[in-house]
Amino acid sequence: MSPDADNDTDLMRAVADGDMAALGKLVRRHEKKAFALACRILARPDAAEDVTQEAFLHVYRAARRYRPKARFTTWLYRIVVNLCLDAKRRTKRAPGELPAYGPAAEAPTDCDRLEAAERTQRVRRAVHDLPGRQRTAVVLHRYMQLSHRDIAEVTGWSVSAVESCLVRAYARLRQELRDLIEN
Amino acid sequence: MPHVTDSELIKYVAGELAQPQRARVDEHVGACRSCRDRQRQISQAWELLGDWQVKPLEADLADAVSVAVRREREAGARQPTGWRRASVLLRAAAAILVAVGLGHLAARWTAPSPSGPVTSSVDRLAQPTDADVVPLGVLELGSATGWAELILNDVVPSEQEGSS
Q1: Rounded to a whole number, what is the distance in Å from the CA of B102 to chain A's nearest CA?
Q2: What is the predicted ipTM?
Q3: Which of A27, A66, A43, A28 is nearest to A121 (CA)?
């Protein structure tokens, strides 16, 4: 790998030439966000880990065909979102089943922590209970900090569709979490 | 002055609005109580959603991806090359053609004649045709139909015994 191969496009060129070190660098650079995205859409860390790994395998396979039309992350998130949707289609879980993980799963030691854990659990539940498209839009908007236009690029929806999806999703979240918001 | 839409307020809270639009929302929200209430609710919901933090990955994903890629490369190397794959495909295509040809011939053989009554192939096989009826004379011992002698040996001796 050349020493100046430090941006994503250069790394992708190196990966296309079979440079495994470049692939490793790309994975380390983006794995946290890709995993967090998958985790929030799927609400299952084990499945999210599989999806993240599969997403980087897709990146490796597509490296020769990769053309940097958009940001690398937009392309990567699109792969992750599509794989998440595939995974969700494959495993239709019963509603209400939400495995415990993350800070909420840790044993709280005092009242404040208990309250915080409960609040986090409520937030997770509220996001998880959103309809599929609304959940994807909120996760990309709130947690991945993507603009409406970027969300449209990642999902393939129109900007106006993203906009209406977000309006409905935030309205529903405000409704679900109104007791926490009013306090 | 028109009210600020929910979509604008979401963009406002997310910091997506450009400065002129942001200033317009600030001005309106300062003067309109209902829009101010909505803006406050959206801001609080935004903050609340931030409570959900994802526990970072424990596994070394780069290593796992690298292993998976190596496996994929090895599996790819074991797969037949282009020419070999083409010859396999050609052989498969030839086998399919032969099977289709044989099927066609079989269909022609079993198809009813256009002038005769419509009967199924099973019926036609059950009814002996002239070609199927073998004159008994042909089945004489020592005749060219040697295969029949074996069967006739079981029947004919009793007839011979009866006649003697």
Answers
A1: 42
A2: 0.82
A3: A43
